[in-house]
Amino acid sequence: MQTLTITTPDDWHLHFRDNEMLAETVPATARCFQRAIVMPNLVPPVVNADMAIAYKQRIEAARPQGSDFTPLMTLFLTNQTTAQDIVDAKQAGVTACKLYPAGATTNSDAAVKGIEALYPVFEAMQAEGLLLLIHGEVTEHHIDIFDREKVFIDKHLSLIVNAFPKLKVVFEHITTADAAAFVKEASDFVGATITPQHLLLNRNDLLVGGVRPHNYCLPVLKRNTHQQALRDVVATGHKRFFLGTDSAPHAKHKKENACGCAGCYSAWSAIELYAEVFEQLGAIDKLEGFASHNGADFYGLPRNTTTITLEKNQWQVPEQVTLADGTDMVPFYAGQPLQWKLKSAFNPR
């Protein structure tokens, strides 16, 4: 097979950041994705409908000329979020709300402390039809970082799913066999996104031979048995697992320092990275479902009506990209070869 044509895909989880970063991140995503679920963890976070609308307008202003790329907006849940905030968000066209346990990832210090306190908000979301997107990790210091996803499932996620059986829940960027098993065994109201880094890499790629800061993300890469469990589940074509890059740009100097900001900037070559995985698995025929059908179906949105075409044409991910202000960023998989390359996008059927 030398070319592959699939329905235009969507990215169901990414970070654009804001301001000058948008001129890089929005076109990088809009080159091949029709829609994207936009994370709200800005500074300050996007906590109400007015902020979501304003952020959407900034994203749309950064789209390439002629693009009809559609950002799907989310609210950042806090302990101050009310049921009225949910009603207002639904009326404003917000798609979902994001639950970050406080301190779980970049810019999440304002997030939720005491998840049970948000049950009235979850009830309002269930009534309004807003999806709940969850960064599923506990943040207690005594819990080992490699165990935090499993503990979150047992301590919080299973209770939320049972308490709100008609609330659509997306377990974001899952990293473990435990998470994959939980989603498979759950109802049709529970889905999951999986990133390219958690399919392509494991913790050896972060730690062996010295720390590799550009492979550092949260949730952190896990052991190879967990990586294999994720690869196995996408190879089956299971309908409730779908594409979510968690593309998270940081300036090079912020990744390569003592703080080592978490996040992999994968938007630059996202669909090609996933094609790499599915070809490795001998499941290239399952890429379209994962990238283009499953997420739209789960969100209750129409599938896209155009196509993209990839061609078998080895190329190398650039070592870095430079923003208009001169800031350098290192894209995920920098300097490494990929076998598939986007040939054309948004083609009529």
Automatic annotation (TrEMBL):
<dbReference type="GO" id="GO:0006207">
    <property type="term" value="P:'de novo' pyrimidine nucleobase biosynthetic process"/>
</dbReference>
<feature type="binding site">
    <location>
        <position position="41"/>
    </location>
    <ligand>
        <name>substrate</name>
    </ligand>
</feature>
<feature type="active site">
    <location>
        <position position="246"/>
    </location>
</feature>
<comment type="pathway">
    <text>Pyrimidine metabolism; UMP biosynthesis via de novo pathway; (S)-dihydroorotate from bicarbonate: step 3/3.</text>
</comment>
<keyword id="KW-0378">Hydrolase</keyword>
<feature type="binding site">
    <location>
        <position position="135"/>
    </location>
    <ligand>
        <name>substrate</name>
    </ligand>
</feature>
<dbReference type="GO" id="GO:0005829">
    <property type="term" value="C:cytosol"/>
</dbReference>
<feature type="binding site">
    <location>
        <position position="218"/>
    </location>
    <ligand>
        <name>substrate</name>
    </ligand>
</feature>
<feature type="binding site">
    <location>
        <position position="173"/>
    </location>
    <ligand>
        <name>Zn(2+) 2</name>
    </ligand>
</feature>
<feature type="binding site">
    <location>
        <position position="250"/>
    </location>
    <ligand>
        <name>substrate</name>
    </ligand>
</feature>
<dbReference type="GO" id="GO:0004151">
    <property type="term" value="F:dihydroorotase activity"/>
</dbReference>
<comment type="subunit">
    <text>Homodimer.</text>
</comment>
<dbReference type="GO" id="GO:0008270">
    <property type="term" value="F:zinc ion binding"/>
</dbReference>
<feature type="domain" description="Amidohydrolase-related">
    <location>
        <begin position="11"/>
        <end position="309"/>
    </location>
</feature>
<dbReference type="InterPro" id="IPR002195">
    <property type="entry name" value="Dihydroorotase_CS"/>
</dbReference>
<feature type="binding site">
    <location>
        <position position="135"/>
    </location>
    <ligand>
        <name>Zn(2+) 2</name>
    </ligand>
</feature>
<dbReference type="InterPro" id="IPR004721">
    <property type="entry name" value="DHOdimr"/>
</dbReference>
<dbReference type="InterPro" id="IPR032466">
    <property type="entry name" value="Metal_Hydrolase"/>
</dbReference>
<feature type="binding site">
    <location>
        <position position="15"/>
    </location>
    <ligand>
        <name>Zn(2+) 1</name>
    </ligand>
</feature>
<keyword id="KW-0479">Metal-binding</keyword>
<feature type="binding site">
    <location>
        <begin position="15"/>
        <end position="17"/>
    </location>
    <ligand>
        <name>substrate</name>
    </ligand>
</feature>
<feature type="binding site" description="via carbamate group">
    <location>
        <position position="98"/>
    </location>
    <ligand>
        <name>Zn(2+) 1</name>
    </ligand>
</feature>
<dbReference type="InterPro" id="IPR006680">
    <property type="entry name" value="Amidohydro-rel"/>
</dbReference>
<feature type="binding site">
    <location>
        <position position="246"/>
    </location>
    <ligand>
        <name>Zn(2+) 1</name>
    </ligand>
</feature>
<keyword id="KW-0862">Zinc</keyword>
<comment type="function">
    <text>Catalyzes the reversible cyclization of carbamoyl aspartate to dihydroorotate.</text>
</comment>
<feature type="binding site">
    <location>
        <position position="262"/>
    </location>
    <ligand>
        <name>substrate</name>
    </ligand>
</feature>
<keyword id="KW-0665">Pyrimidine biosynthesis</keyword>
<feature type="binding site" description="via carbamate group">
    <location>
        <position position="98"/>
    </location>
    <ligand>
        <name>Zn(2+) 2</name>
    </ligand>
</feature>
<dbReference type="GO" id="GO:0044205">
    <property type="term" value="P:'de novo' UMP biosynthetic process"/>
</dbReference>
<comment type="similarity">
    <text>Belongs to the metallo-dependent hydrolases superfamily. DHOase family. Class II DHOase subfamily.</text>
</comment>
<feature type="binding site">
    <location>
        <position position="13"/>
    </location>
    <ligand>
        <name>Zn(2+) 1</name>
    </ligand>
</feature>
<dbReference type="Pfam" id="PF01979">
    <property type="entry name" value="Amidohydro_1"/>
</dbReference>
<protein>
    <recommendedName>
        <fullName>Dihydroorotase</fullName>
        <ecNumber>3.5.2.3</ecNumber>
    </recommendedName>
</protein>
<feature type="modified residue" description="N6-carboxylysine">
    <location>
        <position position="98"/>
    </location>
</feature>
